[in-house]
């Protein structure tokens, strides 16, 4: 008898513990009765780690070794992306948080006048500080829609941010160190380690052509949204090259190489961050000769309000809003359609706060009758280049899918 009661009691405790777990997870845990006692569902481990990375628990973890975290598109509604909502794309393992007094940046390479090392106070005290709002978009943003699927993180459309970056201009530092006439490329080197643990391998070491390095908006940033740069985004110093695939914006900098040729660091080789020059058959491989390095990102827009699936009473007007950007270009126009692309109306479009920042758009939509609708949005850049309505040309690594963003809306 006693034994039986004890068992029942344990079962009751277990059941109530499960129902607490279920309410924390937000839904029923289907095989809860098979879960070992005391087991912590991994979703909590992810949430804890997200917190320690300074991120909101509502971000989507695509991978935790290395960390790849996506922002659900409706969480990108802020005009300036808060650090807590910025996507993370790491290729290697996060470095330890370094002490500023132990940190230096070395300027090296065959085209530097002479190798020189800077401390953080050299950087902060010697050069003027600038702030720009800059779009960082992963080259693989939108990859999840390519067919046949390509390897890599299956990003939705939320591998993008536009935050306020503060630092010094890379061109001022290059002027201070002195570069030779044959310099054509700047490569970065970070403190993160290769997934294999091999200290002789770099997780990623990409960079930018000299013309991009000399732009006013190309920064070596030590602050994000007026606060110290978070570890996840490159503390203590990162390169920020807005408009280029974000892989060019090296985090956790320890060195920059001034090169007399295109930088040949890790992930500069084909097919990484390259796309075919002439069209290819989906699923096929491409000769290196037919590949080019991605520079300016293509035109794109996202609807950040409302969330897809929104339901509203018939008769109510809907105010939509979002952001549009176009790599090195500005956005000329944003249009929306509620009839599957048959007709398009203009959205209100703001000017960017500075070059290479995203532009905010909005529109007020009236729906003719009750029912299911889709709102499609399409941006057009200053050169007249428009977003495609369907997934653009397939490429081996699934880059640059800038198809129109669409949301579902129900009028009831
Ligand atoms: N050192 C270093 N820099 C890096 C990376 C990295 O793995 N290591 N990832 C790059 C890639 S592919 C992207 S998309 C951006 C992501 O920047 P974020 O994590 O700050 O959003 O950082 C880039 N800079
Ligand atoms: Mo990326």
UniProtKB/TrEMBL annotation:
Keywords: Metal-binding, Molybdenum, Oxidoreductase. Its cofactor is Mo-molybdopterin. CDD domains: SO_family_Moco_dimer. Residues 95-265 form the Oxidoreductase molybdopterin-binding domain. Residues 293-410 form the Moybdenum cofactor oxidoreductase dimerisation domain. GO terms for biological process: sulfur compound metabolic process. It comes from the Bacteria. GO terms for molecular function: heme binding; molybdenum ion binding; molybdopterin cofactor binding; sulfite oxidase activity. It holds the Pfam family Oxidored_molyb. This is Oxidoreductase molybdopterin binding domain protein. The lineage of its organism: Bacteria, Pseudomonadati, Bacteroidota, Cytophagia, Cytophagales.
């Amino acid at each position: 008898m006693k034994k039986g009661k004890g068992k029942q009691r344990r079962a009751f405790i277990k059941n109530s513990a499960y129902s607490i777990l279920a309410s924390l997870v937000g839904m029923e845990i289907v095989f809860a009765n098979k879960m070992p006692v005391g087991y912590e569902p991994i979703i909590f481990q992810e949430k804890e780690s997200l917190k320690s990375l300074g991120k909101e628990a509502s971000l989507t973890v695509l991978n935790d070794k290395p960390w790849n975290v996506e922002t659900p598109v409706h969480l990108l509604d802020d005009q300036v992306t808060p650090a807590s909502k910025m996507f993370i794309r790491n290729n290697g393992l996060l470095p330890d948080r370094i002490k500023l007094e132990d940190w230096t940046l070395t300027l090296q390479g065959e085209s530097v006048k002479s190798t020189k090392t800077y401390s953080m106070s050299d950087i902060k005290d010697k050069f003027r500080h600038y702030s720009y709002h800059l779009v960082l978009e992963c080259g693989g943003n939108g990859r999840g829609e390519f067919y046949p699927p390509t390897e890599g993180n299956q990003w939705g459309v939320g591998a993008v941010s536009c935050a306020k970056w503060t630092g010094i201009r890379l061109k001022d530092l290059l002027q201070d160190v002195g570069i030779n006439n044959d310099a054509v490329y700047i490569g970065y080197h970070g403190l993160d380690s290769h997934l294999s643990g091999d200290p002789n391998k770099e997780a990623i070491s990409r960079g930018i052509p000299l013309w991009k390095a000399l732009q006013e908006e190309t920064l070596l940033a030590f602050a994000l949204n007026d606060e110290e740069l978070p570890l996840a985004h490159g503390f203590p110093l990162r390169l920020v090259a807005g408009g280029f695939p974000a892989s060019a914006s090296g985090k956790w900098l320890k060195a920059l190489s001034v090169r007399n040729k295109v930088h040949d660091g890790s992930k500069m080789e084909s097919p990484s961050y390259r796309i075919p020059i002439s069209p290819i058959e989906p699923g096929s491989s491409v000769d290196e000769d037919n590949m080019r390095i991605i520079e300016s990102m293509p035109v794109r827009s996202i609807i950040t309000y409302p969330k897809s699936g929104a339901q509203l009473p018939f008769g109510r007007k809907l105010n939509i809003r979002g952001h549009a950007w176009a790599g090195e270009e500005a956005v000329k126009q944003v249009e929306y359609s509620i009839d599957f692309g048959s007709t398009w109306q203009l959205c209100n479009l703001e000017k960017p706060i500075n070059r290479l920042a995203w532009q905010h758009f909005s529109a007020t939509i009236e729906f003719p009758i009750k029912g299911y609708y889709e709102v499609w949005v399409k941006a057009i850049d200053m050169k007249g280049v428009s977003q495609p309505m369907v997934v653009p040309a397939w490429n081996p690594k699934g880059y640059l899918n800038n198809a129109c963003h669409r949301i579902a809306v129900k009028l009831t």
